[in-house]
Write a structure and sequence with these properties.
It is a single chain. The chain has 329 residues and is an alpha/beta fold. The chain has a single domain, classed as TIM Barrel. The protein has eleven helices and twelve strands. A hairpin with a 4-residue loop joins strand 10 and strand 11. It has a twelve-stranded mixed sheet with strand order 7-8-9-6-5-4-3-2-1-10-11-12. Bound molecules: S-adenosylmethionine and iron/sulfur cluster (SF4). The site of iron/sulfur cluster has 13 residues, from helix 11. Iron/sulfur cluster binds next to helix 11.
């Protein structure tokens, strides 16, 4: 039973924790080319991150996802995973990663108790991949996917953000790659988080419905009732184990069933991805070091701030000034 229920009777069972704002990539939809990252004193220590995870699981949260920034560039991430992985009550422990450091870490993550991985992959063309990530090496990411498979991760999911005119022509190639590698794949609509210098978001918006139409030109998609306690809508293909998901914050609003909150690397508890409602957990962590009760009380009280819904639009306006790497995607 979760102690975390908001004003709209939604039960919060899922928390995404950002463990760093830093990243070895600079994806065009996520960051600007020149980023200023937070000074060390402002970000939660590994111990504080563990405390936060513990407070949430003691309040009934069953699923934790570590994200960032790129979680695998945080020093000591393997120890943090082991600490969180052993928390009682945690049923689903996951990470979203760009995959480039998985050859080094996949085994340690699995041994530390991590259940699932989402790996971001927007292009299978090495040059285009470098352009979209501004620095990423596709070979490393593919090696990372294989390392995760070798380490025993099952149902690995690819995340692909599709941008009109940039990679919308790769939708079918990405689906075929997922089928060949026996992976699931989710297509994500770009969200207007942070003012990125690379493009106007209105121009590049490509809806999940358009992605679906492209896929259905080759494969019939059958709606699947499965859920991973997230906002994805899933489909299956008749001749494959791979699932295809759509995360559509614009075109299919999922707020009414939202069961999640986020914690930024500065310890801000964000009640909604698309709104600024938040409370400062870092202040409480530092005022009462080592004490879980004040933190838990603050989290329970914060539930009243969870807004009913977000209001993203596709006209390219920036509605939330936070970048995705700060929010913890
Ligand atoms: N670095 C890791 C990665 O790329 O998987 C984890 C953090 S990243 C912010 C999490 C996810 O958010 C990635 O799948 C990324 O593609 C997605 N993302 C980043 N900026 C986005 C945006 N503006 N709109 C939609 N998705 C975005
Ligand atoms: Fe880094 Fe992930 Fe953002 Fe790309 S999407 S810049 S990999 S944090």
């Amino acid at each position: 039973m979760t102690a975390l229920i908001d004003k709209f009777s939604r039960q919060v069972r899922y928390v995404r924790i950002s463990v760093t704002d830093r990243c070895d990539f600079r994806c065009v939809y996520c960051m600007s080319e020149e980023m200023t990252f937070l000074p060390r004193a402002q970000i939660l220590t590994l111990e504080e991150l563990h405390q936060v995870a513990r407070a949430f699981t003691e309040l009934g949260v069953e699923k934790i996802r570590l994200t960032g920034g790129e979680p695998l560039v945080r020093k000591g991430i393997d120890d943090l995973v082991t600490d969180i992985g052993s928390l009682p009550g945690l049923k689903d422990f996951a990470m979203t990663t760009n995959g480039a450091s998985l050859p080094r870490y996949a085994r340690a993550l699995k041994q530390g108790g991590m259940d699932r991985l989402n790996i971001s992959l927007d292009s299978l063309d090495p040059e285009r991949f470098r352009r979209l990530t501004r620095s990423g090496d596709l070979t490393k990411v593919i090696a990372g996917i294989h390392a995760a498979q070798d380490a025993g991760f099952e149902r690995i999911k690819l995340n692909a953000v599709i941008l009109r005119g940039r990679n919308d022509d790769e939708v079918l190639d990405l689906v075929d790659f997922a089928r060949d590698e026996q992976l699931d794949i989710s297509f994500i609509e770009e969200m207007p988080l942070g003012d990125v210098s690379d493009h106007s978001r209105g121009e590049t918006f490509y809806s999940s419905d358009d992605v679906q139409t492209r896929i259905e030109s080759r494969y019939a998609l059958m709606p699947s009732p499965e859920t991973t306690m997230g906002p994805s809508r899933y489909f299956r293909m008749a001749d494959s184990q791979s699932r295809v998901g759509f995360i559509s914050p614009h075109s299919h609003n999922f707020c009414s069933t939202c069961n999640r909150v986020r914690v930024t690397v500065e310890g801000r508890l964000l009640l909604c991805l698309g709104n600024e409602h938040s409370v400062d957990l870092r202040d409480t962590l530092r005022r009462y070091p080592g004490q879980l009760e004040p933190l838990k009380e603050q989290i329970i009280e914060a539930m009243d701030l969870k807004p009913e819904r977000h209001h993203f639009s596709t006209d390219g306006d920036v509605q939330v000034v936070r970048f995705m790497n700060m929010t913890g995607g």
